[in-house]
Automatic annotation (TrEMBL), chain A:
PROSITE patterns associated with the record: UBC_2
UniProt entry tagged with the keyword Manganese: no
Keyword terms, alphabetized: Transferase, Ubl conjugation pathway
GO BP: any one term: protein ubiquitination
Pfam families: UQ_con (PF00179)
Catalysed reactions listed for this entry: S-ubiquitinyl-[E1 ubiquitin-activating enzyme]-L-cysteine + [E2 ubiquitin-conjugating enzyme]-L-cysteine = [E1 ubiquitin-activating enzyme]-L-cysteine + S-ubiquitinyl-[E2 ubiquitin-conjugating enzyme]-L-cysteine; S-ubiquitinyl-[E1 ubiquitin-activating enzyme]-L-cysteine + [acceptor protein]-N-terminal-amino acid = [E1 ubiquitin-activating enzyme]-L-cysteine + N-terminal-ubiquitinyl-[acceptor protein]
Family annotation (CDD domains): UBCc_UBE2W
Domain spans labelled UBC core: 1-150
EC number: 2.3.2.23, 2.3.2.25
A GO molecular-function annotation: ubiquitin conjugating enzyme activity
Protein name, entry field: N-terminal E2 ubiquitin-conjugating enzyme
Entry keyword Transmembrane helix: no
Organism: Brachionus calyciflorus
Automatic annotation (TrEMBL), chain B:
Native source species: Brachionus calyciflorus
Listed PROSITE patterns: ZF_RING_1, ZF_RING_2
Taxonomic path: Eukaryota, Metazoa, Spiralia, Gnathifera, Rotifera
This protein's name: RING-type E3 ubiquitin transferase
Domain RING-type, residue spans: 27-68
PANTHER family: E3 UBIQUITIN-PROTEIN LIGASE RNF5-RELATED
Associated pathway: Protein modification; protein ubiquitination
Residue spans of biased composition, Low complexity class: 12-21
Molecular function per GO: ubiquitin protein ligase activity; zinc ion binding
Region (Disordered) residue spans: 1-21, 82-108
One Gene Ontology cellular component annotation held by this UniProt entry: endoplasmic reticulum
Classification via Pfam families: zf-C3HC4_3
SUPFAM superfamilies cross-referenced by the UniProt entry: RING/U-box
Basic and acidic residues biased stretches: 1-11, 84-95
Keywords: Membrane, Metal-binding, Transferase, Transmembrane, Transmembrane helix, Ubl conjugation pathway, Zinc, Zinc-finger
Length: 150, 178
């Protein structure tokens, strides 16, 4: 697992995704938690905004999916992102595959943000934020996926 | 001087090409050069230990990690390079975990537990000719071995057969008195 993360780190540094950069301070020493700075892509609703995306890698990574959520006080306002930072994205749970990587997850999130037509929270945001099983780990939630349009 | 620089850039190019070449043969799971390589029918390369671990992770939904096509142990092809000294099928190296053993639960026929496979029926035809049209029908299929004497099931069966005997006697007495 450590070796795979090393390789992913090298790949991430070699072919960075536009608008995404690793928060160096938080990576050093602990490869199991990454924080990525996400700049809202130009010509999208999130232009000029800066978010922090956190990846936590479980022991069985890559056979288990990483826990991915937005952290900090700026959480993008998006119909699939709850105000506690949890992201409703199928590849983070059911559809995870070990051939996916930090880069592919980042790309999915960027495209999810970029294709957003109107800023809003998920319809059940308030209820979910109050009742979710573990605010610090979105993987504890049982996700249902219904909307493929955004 | 210029020549040296040219050389250096050439060697850099070479090493880049080499890297690119190698990455074509990386396992899609561990991202390292595939070891004990196998290839799926959909054409994706893996180390057999990595793929095996993934297949074990989702035994009911075995899909290719890259393209989600259906995949199984039998449907991957081991790859042997020219200098591969170990010609053993990589799929034999990680011993597949033995299948879980399960046996069908005995079907409960009509009296629930304790009477499996034993059909008892009483019938009254034109009295008195077929008074004892009782059939004791012991089906052999699915029949469980007789419980050991002393076990609770044995005691239960004894108890039940005694009850049936009593019921039958009461019935006969009632018929005779009526």
């Amino acid at each position: 697992m450590a070796q795979r993360l090393q390789k992913e780190l090298a790949n991430f540094m070699r072919d960075p995704i536009p608008g995404m950069s690793l928060d160096r301070n938080l990576v050093e020493g602990n490869l199991n938690v990454w924080v990525i700075n996400v700049d809202g892509a130009p010509n999208t609703l999130y232009e000029g905004e800066i978010f922090k995306l956190q990846f936590k890698f479980p022991q069985r990574y890559p056979f288990d999916s990483p826990s991915v959520m937005f952290i900090g006080n700026k959480i993008p306002e998006h119909p699939h992102i709850y105000s506690n930072g949890h992201i409703c994205l199928s590849i983070l749970t059911d559809e995870w595959s070990p051939a996916l990587s930090v880069q592919s997850v980042c790309l999915s999130i960027v495209s999810m943000l970029s294709s957003c037509k109107a800023k809003s929270r998920p319809p059940d945001d308030e209820r979910y934020v109050q009742t979710c099983r573990d605010p610090s780990d979105p993987k504890k939630t049982r996700w249902f996926f219904h909307d493929d349009s955004v | 001087m210029v020549l040296v620089e040219e050389d250096r850039s050439k060697s850099e190019n070479n090493s880049n090409e080499k890297n690119a070449d190698n990455s074509q043969y990386e396992c899609n799971i561990c991202l390292d050069t595939a070891r004990d390589a196998v290839i799926s029918l959909c054409g994706h390369l893996f180390c057999w230990p990595c793929l095996h671990k993934w297949l074990e992770t989702r035994p009911n939904n075995q899909t290719c990690p890259v393209c989600k096509s259906a995949i199984s142990k039998e449907k991957v092809i081991p790859l042997y390079g020219r200098n591969c000294t170990d010609k053993k099928d990589p799929r034999d190296k990680v011993p597949p975990r033995p299948q879980g053993q399960r046996t069908e639960a005995p079907r409960n026929n009509f009296f629930g537990s304790g009477l499996d496979g034993l059909h008892v029926s009483f019938g009254i035809g034109a009295f008195p000719f077929s008074f004892f049209a009782s059939t004791f029908n012991i089906t052999t299929e699915n029949r469980m071995p007789a419980p050991a004497p002393g076990s609770t099931q044995y005691a239960e069966e004894q108890f039940l057969s005694r009850i049936f005997l009593i019921v039958a006697i009461i019935f006969i007495i009632w018929i005779l008195l009526a």
